[in-house]
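To illustrate the input format used throughout this study, we show a single complete record. The first block contains the structure-token representation of the backbone; no residue identities are included at this stage. The design step must infer an amino acid for every position from geometry alone.
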């Protein structure tokens, strides 16, 4: 086990890995024997937990990331990413290897992700004492839905530390996501696979402990459920052309948590999230770059067009 860093504002649990980015002429990609990729095929560190950690650190929050990593070139890329950005990392050994995925990115910035599920084992667990120690020195824990985070939820709940999670494109029915949804104080998810976002959001709040539920809806903005009231959060205007939506939800979550830990009301937190998500859409998937605190606050307080 490798470990760096001490007390943190946010402990990010899981979601470390490597993506191979391929710019394709369109999505869905028609069948062909081969395609010429003039933009190149690039492999870089950064999956959902990495991007949340990057976003938090860029906003000035002390961030610690815990996950399983392989002793392989992909794991080295993840370790290097954290060193470069000053993010504390506790990397537990993963004999199956570091998580990896292939992202096909279309001209409009939409993506199709292909995840290699062989990089995990059914018996993988985070040591309970490691969880208690790291959570106990953190103000907040953000739990990704990657394995083995589900088994960590009871340990984390017993600590009493506030939790958040991102259910990504949950359809509202898959039972795997429910323990995450019901254990977290703040729940993020995409509205993409929901036929009735409000119904799903209210069910999360009624069955769990969520104080705020946010459903992001891309160019349509987001929906915020807080204090029993559902409101619409307008989408922020991207500061440059949209090139890739990869990491936009992670950026939204990081900025929302920045506001929440700073004592801001949910509506302001959601506005921060919208600005950060719009910024992320202008960053090519081959780069790991998050909005900084000064830029976030400037754009979030600027008059809306």
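Output of the design step:
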């Amino acid at each position: 086990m490798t470990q760096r860093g001490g007390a943190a504002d946010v402990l990010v649990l899981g979601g470390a890995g490597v993506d191979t980015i391929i710019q394709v002429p369109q999505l869905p990609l028609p069948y062909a024997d081969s395609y010429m990729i003039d933009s190149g095929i690039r492999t870089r560190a950064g999956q959902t937990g990495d991007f949340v950690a990057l976003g938090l650190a860029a906003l000035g929050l002390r961030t610690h990331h815990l996950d399983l990593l392989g002793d392989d070139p992909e794991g080295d890329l993840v370790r290097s990413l954290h060193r470069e950005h000053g993010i504390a990392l506790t990397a537990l050994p993963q004999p199956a290897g570091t998580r990896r995925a292939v992202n096909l990115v279309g001209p409009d910035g939409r993506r199709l992700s292909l995840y290699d599920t062989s990089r995990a084992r059914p018996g993988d667990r985070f040591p309970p004492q490691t969880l208690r120690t790291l959570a106990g020195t953190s103000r907040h824990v953000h739990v990704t839905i990657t394995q083995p985070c589900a088994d960590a939820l009871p340990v984390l709940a017993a600590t009493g530390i506030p939790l958040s999670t991102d259910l990504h494109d949950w359809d509202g029915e898959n039972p795997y996501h429910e323990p995450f949804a019901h254990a977290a104080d703040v729940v993020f998810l995409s509205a993409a696979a929901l036929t009735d976002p409000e119904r799903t959001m209210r069910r999360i709040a009624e069955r769990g402990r969520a104080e705020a539920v946010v459903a992001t809806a891309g160019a349509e903005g987001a929906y915020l459920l807080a204090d029993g009231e559902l409101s619409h959060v307008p989408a922020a205007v991207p500061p440059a052309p949209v090139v890739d939506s990869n990491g936009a939800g992670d950026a939204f979550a990081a900025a929302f948590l920045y506001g929440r830990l700073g004592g801001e009301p949910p509506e302001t937190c959601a506005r921060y999230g919208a600005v950060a998500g719009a910024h992320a859409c202008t960053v090519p998937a081959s780069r790991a770059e998050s909005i900084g605190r000064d830029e976030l606050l400037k754009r979030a307080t600027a008059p809306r067009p």
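Structural context for interpreting the output: The CA atoms of residues 212 and 226 lie 5 Å apart. Confidence is low (pLDDT under 50) at residues 1-5.
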